[in-house]
Amino acid sequence: MLNRKAASVLLVLALVAALVSFSATALAVQGGNVDEVAEAGVAEAAEAAKGSYATVAVGDSHTLAIKDDGSLWAWGINGECGALGDGTTISRQSPVKIMDGVTAVAADYFRSLAIKTDGSLWVWGQNYQGLLGDGTYRDKQTPVKIMDGVASVVTGSFITMAIKTDGSLWAWGANGFGNLGNGTYVHSTVPVKIMDDVTDVFIGSSHTMALKTDKSLWAWGSNSSGQLGNGKTNSSASPVKIMDDVETVSTGSLHTMAIKTDGSLWAWGSNAYGQLGDRTATDRHTPVMIMEGVTAASVGNSHSMAIKSDGSLWAWGLNDFGQRGTQSADRSLPVKVMDGVASVTAFSVNTMAIKNDGSLWAWGWNRYGQLGDGTEEQRNAPVKVMDDVANVFRGNRHSVAIKTDGSMWSWGYHYDGQPGSGFSTSRLTPEKIMDDVLIPGSSPSASASPGTGALPGLPPGEAGKTEAADLLYELGLFRGVGENADGSPDFALDRVPTRNEAVTMLVRLLGQEDAAQNGEWTTPFNDVAGWAEPYVGYAYANELTTGAGSTVFGGADAVTASQYITFVLRALGYSSGSDFEWDKAWELSDALGFTHGEYNASTQGFTRGDVAVISLNALSAIGKNDRPLYMDLIDSDAITSEAAKNAGIIGISDG
User: Fold this and answer.
1) How far does Cα 40 stand from its chain's mean position?
2) Of 308, 485, 500, 536, which has fewest CB within 10 angstroms of its CB?
3) Nearest to 323 by CA among 459, 154, 156, 450
4) CA 259 to CA 275: how far, in whole Å?
């Protein structure tokens, strides 16, 4: 039997030589052949498939990597939840060893997962709403075992899906859109069985797709834009069959693409920016054929990429940050970008591709240097980053690549060490992190799902609060209470805000300060400070806030985390009482991804800094209208696309 590295290298070479249908993230065939796995047994299957497992996983701000000897290493933001799994809450700028005997890893926000050689699944990190699947609500700072006999796992959008060696699919986590597929809309803190005979599963922002052994494709979850493909627009909490003869799938925020066994590419869902590629801007509620001869495809938030059998790369959809890599006028028409491409991954507003010769190319949004080209400049066409690359992964604002010699390289934004190089500043070009990393093969069995809409932007730490306030200030959506000695705004981030202040900050976040100041408002409240009346009046008229009583607003009272989150959820179009309970508002905000489990009924000391972090992260949250808030602000001219790029809010969802 081949050793681990030899098997991995052969798989990589096979990928390059044969142009295997592969994307570095969601479109790869993630589970392998489950029938063969079941027949071989857990141990034998794990040994045989080592080269095809995902051996690197990149979360929001932390990274996991498996070395040749099966040891698992982690670095980046650890947080109070213990996302790294080293038993501490200390963030790490360099890799630390976590455990041995690991064959596959996955990461999602501040959670981590690992499959061991015996097929057991282990988890750790954030566990609010029971997202770890261990039946509790307690964060875990060290790995805990969840289940046995696991062949593959995918995670994203606050849910986890695991395929066992017998082909059964199991799910747990948040379930507000029915995206677990168990026939309910109730969160589950333990794995629940969904269906049998599954080979692959793919997670979108709020919907899920599964591929069965007979090549039939099944879908469930949110369906507001027709992203399930079943001809309807109402959500489904149970799997519904979509089509037959499907080879693989890529799920985005609100649209889906599938490649059939004959090489034809099909798409459905939201099409506001031509992201389906059918030469229209009309949403499609059932699959429509886009092109033939396709071997791989990848979906971003609002753009799409496909590789044809001749190695040519094609793009279509939104291109406001150069993410298509081509300047064609018709965004709904597939246009050729480059030749000789082996794999492609479309992120929210940028794209990366590996060519047949192993060279890595990148283009699109580049605020934090995550393209790795030595600049922070937007790239509207592909630029070469490095050679001899086997696979590439993206976090929130940093990138990781594995070279064919097993060395790991990283670049991009640095916050408490996510690049892993031990440097204390962002890196604009790749820096070597470690050697002897187990090279991912062409069919990763554990990965985080890309293109999933809102992702957490900044952690709630002091540095995160300061940066959030600075970025919002750049956009004109946040103000200080005065000036510091150097003339910079004094944000008073440690101060507890009143309800008057909180509503004012919310109105500014929505870009509606002028509307509030120039409008004529009537409220029943008799205790609102004069300076706050326009803001409270606007918020009351637009059903963003209610009073503490029939004539009392409680404007001088300290605002709680739940109250401010309620304000934001209403601004996103969600209704208290039907979509969420106001005294448990954090449950929906966690599911939407603009909070991360740090707020609950016992939260004390909610500050203006917390308001800034929640507000910034909410800009990329998906509203009831199925659009991120920042896009509504751009459409209403509250902010510009250029300002959004410069302030970095697009990158918050840049998974």
Assistant:
1) 34
2) 485
3) 450
4) 16
Q: Which ranges constitute the DSSP H helices of 19-125?
A: 34-40, 42-48
DSSP 516: H
Q: Nearest Cα to 504, choosing from 485, 481, 525, 527?
A: 481
The residue type found at 654 is D
Q: pLDDT tens-digit profile of 31-68?
A: 333 233 223 232 222 222 222 347 899 887 889 999 98
pTM over the 0.70 mark: no
Positions of E strands within 262-356:
265-269, 284-291, 294-299, 303-308, 313-317, 335-338, 341-346, 350-355
The pairing of strands 489-490 and 169-173 is unpaired
Domain boundaries, given as residue ranges, for the chain: 4-448, 462-652
CB within 8 Å of 58: residues ≥ 6 apart: 64, 107, 393, 394, 395, 398, 400, 448
72-112 pLDDT, tens digit per residue, is 999 988 888 899 999 998 888 889 999 999 999 999 878 99
In the block, residue with structure tokens 């989150």 = 565
Tokens 């205790």: give the residue.
Answer: 527
Answer CATH for 4-448 from 3.40.50.1370, 1.10.240.10, 3.90.650.10, 2.130.10.30: 2.130.10.30
Cα–Cα nearest to 295, from 278, 282, 276, 314: 314
Cα 415 from chain centroid (whole Å): 18
**CA separation for the pair 613, 607 (Å, rounded):** 10
Q: Are 193 and 241 in contact (CB under 8 A)?
A: no
Is residue 477 a contact partner of residue 634, using CB atoms and an 8 Å limit? no
